[in-house]
Amino acid sequence: xxxxxxxxxxxxxxxxxxxxxxxxxxxxxxxxxxxxxxxxxxxxxxxxxxxxxxxxxxxxxxxxxxxxxxxxxxxxxxxxxxxxxxxxxxxxxxxxxxxxxxxxxxxxxxxxxxxxxxxxxxxxxxxxxxxxxxxxxxxxxxxxxxxxxxxxxxxxxxxxxxxxxxxxxxxxxxxxxxxxxxxxxxxxxxxxxxxxxxxxxxxxxxxxxxxxxxxxxxxxxxxxxxxxxxxxxxxxxxxxxxxxxxxxxxxxxxxxxxxxxxxxxxxxxxxxxxxxxxxxxxxxxxxxxxxxxxxxxxxxxxxxxxxxxxxxxxxxxxxxxxxxxxxxxxxxxxxxxxxxxxxxxxxxxxxxxxxxxxxxxxxxxxxxxxxxxxxxxxxxxxxxxxxxxxxxxxxxxxxxxxxxxxxxxxxxxxxx
Length: 416
Hints:
InterPro entries: GH. This protein is α/β, with parallel strands linked by helices and about 425 residues long. It has helices at about 25-35, 50-55, 60-75, 115-130, 160-180, 190-195, 200-205, 220-225, 230-235, 235-245, 270-285, 325-340, 370-380, 400-405, and strands at about 5-10, 45, 80-85, 90, 95, 135-145, 185, 210-215, 255-260, 290-295, 350-355, 390, 410.
């Protein structure tokens, strides 16, 4: 671990989006990586497409793995470290699941023994291929794979929290077997923190893997409710970082803001730079922040059809590699942080969250936009209180509070 906050981008190829694996062009990748490195960023998050890399349960394509290694080596030449998400999974509204899990071969991707065994072999293979690369950060099991486990997905593979935990442990172990000692983790979209019946829980996110990942998207009701300049909107990323710490067993467990972006039209293009500035400033005011990784590096090209409109405009750069306002803002922040790194003080006031049982959090919707904890955090932040979050079960644990620098505890109904 490093005390310096890392800054990176989720790499979206400017040509062909993630379909570029089908027509892999290393020269185009190198040009993209040049443009990312020019912003001063130090890492990328990379997304193999699971059906392309493992089209059959017992076939992990050597050529695809070789191309992933070529990408990682090209990144190293430009001073960029690489995190690899294995199971894609879900990207920008599209699902990518191999045929051997669907229709006539329909099997639960979280609980079927053969499927899980195949997933473990796949992740182990990718990790092993990169294990000796100094710029390889580690594996993320997959991108927001929890969206397959419950509604609102139209055809979920339903499981219990106990099954979700077994799946996570098995696949994290596979990553560690492939690349011992690297930072291996898992990453869920915010239903893990906000949705009462989501089987992937806050405890899973905050206690399993090398560090906690949070994905901050204000189109989840936050910006609709509070507006583009609302405190809750500009501090949503900071809120998720602090919320995650409530469930962490290590009071200084690192947290990675692994996805965050400025989604139009809730954040209009002319305000993207301002939103980016406020969001990153809020995140940097949180202790134990490992890194900030913006979604995404390059816009989706308008030549590609059927994406939700916002997906065409989320890049730090256009699909022609022209730097946009958000990209200029990130580049400036990176330069400033390298000259004068942020050293946030402890957050001394903690807001109590009671979501029921700490392990399963059956009442975690109190943490969602409109919920008592969410709205109280926003009000405290607007008043300059810099709140932390603590579980009700730990609200009177003097040792835990002291380890986090907390000196005052308040409940949501005490916040006016």
